[in-house]
Amino acid sequence: MKKKVIGLIGALEIELNDTNNIALLKLAGQIDSYTSEEITKIIDTHMDNGHFKIIVDLSNVDYLDSAGLGALINAKARLKKRTGDIRLVGLKGKAKEVFDLAGFTVLFNNFDSCEKALEGF
């Protein structure tokens, strides 16, 4: 599935692939309060289908606000309750700064590539 969502700051391109019951969510653009709602819907749908392992590729995200951070934190908490997990790929730049400022970088496993994130999942 591919879609483009227009947010308050700009657009977010979303690509979702499902491999062996692991969702790979590739994001590009801006994650704000509006586009983060779409991310939450996608993760919720994946969980409703009984899949509790999610990889979020942030390599091409150039803006992330507190709503985007909150969506990922909430997803992690919900997945953990169901013995699942969320792994991040390519957390860098402004997005990493938001995680660092909030003190949440240590809560997530961050990988250099999707292939590395898939290993041992």
Give the gist of this structure.
The protein is of the alpha/beta class and 121 residues long.
Task: Note the main attributes of this structure.
about 40% helix, six-stranded mixed β-sheet, about 35% strand, about 120 residues, alpha/beta, 4 helices, Transcription Regulator spoIIAA, globular, 6 strands
Explain how this protein is built.
- The relative contact order is 0.16.
- Helix 1 (33-48) packs parallel to helix 2 (66-81).
- The chain is α/β, with parallel strands linked by helices and 121 residues long.
- The chain has helices at 33-48, 66-81, 93-102, 114-118; strands spanning 2-6, 11-19, 22-31, 53-64, 85-89, 109-111.
- It contains 4 helices and 6 strands, in the order E-E-E-H-E-H-E-H-E-H.
- It starts with a strand and ends with a helix.
- The protein has a single domain, classed as 2-Layer Sandwich (Transcription Regulator spoIIAA).
- The mean pLDDT is 94.
CATH C-level class = Alpha Beta
Helix content: 25-40%
Strand content: 35-45%
Point out poorly predicted stretches: none
Q: Can you count the helices?
A: 4
Separation of the first and last Cα atoms: 22 Å
Strand order of the largest sheet: 1-2-3-4-5-6
* CATH architectural label: 2-Layer Sandwich
Number of strands: 6
Q: What sequence of helices (H) and strands (E) makes up the elements?
A: EEEHEHEHEH
**What spatial form do the alpha-carbon principal axes imply?**
globular
Major sheet characteristics:
6 strands, mixed
Number of domains: 1
Structural class: alpha/beta
